[in-house]
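Course assignment 3, question 2. Fill in each field.
Student: A.L.
Task: Predict the tertiary structure for the chain below.
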Amino acid sequence: MKKTFLFLIGAVAIISVFSFGTASAQSVYCNDYLSGQIISAGGSGQPALASVTNYKTDCSAQVTFSSYKVFIQQNHPGWLDTQVLFDSKTIILAPSETQQISINTATCKNQLDVYKGGVITHLSDGVGHTGLLTHAFTNDSLCTTVIPNLICSPATQTINSGNSANFSASGGTGTYSWTGGNNPQTGSGANFSSSFQGSGSRTVTVTSGDQSATCSVTVNEIIPNLICSSATQTINSGNSANFSASGGTGTYSWTGGNNPQTGSGANFSSS
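Answer field:
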């Protein structure tokens, strides 16, 4: 079945605007008042055909027609990230010119995009494709590919309180988001580093597309050495000796005095 899609974008009126993939680079051509329609979506390895028109009378326009292999259902996580460019053709439309563009399609599901500017080799989730004139999908089944298992490394590690734990991700779709850190709490990219305070076990989670993986961190509280100051002192009989404590847990108990014999707190005085 043939489907025709017509979208007209001009300086006065905008009939329809879609957002797919990365924005095309700015070109030297004026790209206002362009229309694009997919005459035949092809599919199952058959060519797809589009028609594009430049309504401007004083400048040329650059337009591209591309087919992308689709591995994940539309609007699911990673559905644009995982697409692979299959075929593409870029043309220059003279003023007031209409041309037809034919490209090849894969034997599995294709996304077909007609857009302003040069070829875009990779699409990304959540990034606008402002130059899109029209798009369509073939009726084929989703393409199949082996998406590697998502791995969080190292699986376990031990750090001291206040220090940073370093993580790395591999596999998945190649796009990663991190949660469960302390400072910072979240991150993105293949590598993530976060510092942790206090003792205990922590879990950091990385997600990529529909997959998630975890790494565990054991945080040890380091207790500084207990110090009694001054280490030695000399007093006259009946006078008081003054002591101070530092380090340890921050809670102190004193014994061995004369008057008083015991005490608590960071400071202790006994005659």
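Instructor remarks: The mean pLDDT is 85. The radius of gyration is 33 Å.
Grade: pending
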